[in-house]
Specification:
This protein starts with a strand and ends with a helix. It contains 3 helices and 9 strands. The protein has 177 residues and is an alpha+beta fold. The chain is globular, with a radius of gyration of 16 Å. The protein has a single domain, classed as Alpha-Beta Complex (Cyclic Phosphodiesterase, Chain: A), CATH 3.90.1140. A hairpin with a 5-residue loop joins strand 4 and strand 5. The strands form 2 sheets. The chain has a 5-stranded antiparallel β-sheet with strand order 2-9-8-1-3. It comes from Agromyces bauzanensis. This is 2'-5' RNA ligase family protein.
Amino acid sequence: MTRFVVVLPIEPLVVNAEFTVAQWPLHVTLVEPFETDVEVDTLDAALAPVAAATRPIPADVAEDAMFGPRRNILVSLVRDDGDALPALRAVAMTALRERAVDLGHTRTDYRPHVTAKGHGRVHEGDRLLLDTMALVRLRPPETSHHGRIVGSWRMGEAAGEAAGASVAEADARRPAT
C-alpha cells in the first residue's frame, strides 16, 4: 500500500520535487492522506480532468485556529467566496472512488486551512488564488521521511495542455543516468 494526499499548494509544485516533513510547502489539503494499491497513473488519470475542469479558486485567509489531537498545531483557516473548496473536494473524492480508491474514513467536518510551518505561513486577511492541484506520495520507499510530488496540474486548463505532468511523463523526459 502506498500513501498519498491531494493538496492545493499556495505556489505550484513541480512533479518529482521532494521535501521533508518539516519543509512541507504551504498548501490547503483537499483530500486527506489515504493508502491504496492503485497505480499513480490511475490516480493521475482521475485527478487531472478534475483540475482541468475547475477554475482557480480565490480564497481569503481567516482567523487562526489550533488543530491536532492536542490542539497544538497552528493553522490559518481558509474561506472561499462560496462553497468551491468543499465542492472540489467532493468531486476529487468521487473521481478517486470511481478508480477503485478506498479513501478510508474521510472527515465530515472539512475545514480548509494552511498549517503554519517554520519556513512560512499565511496571515489573516491574505488573499490566495488556489490554481494548482497536486498529488503527493508520502514517505516514498527511497526516502522514508519525505513527500514527493507525483502529479501537479494547473486548474482550469484543458487536460492535454495542463502545465503539470504525471510522473510517467516526467520520467520519460528525464535523461538516462
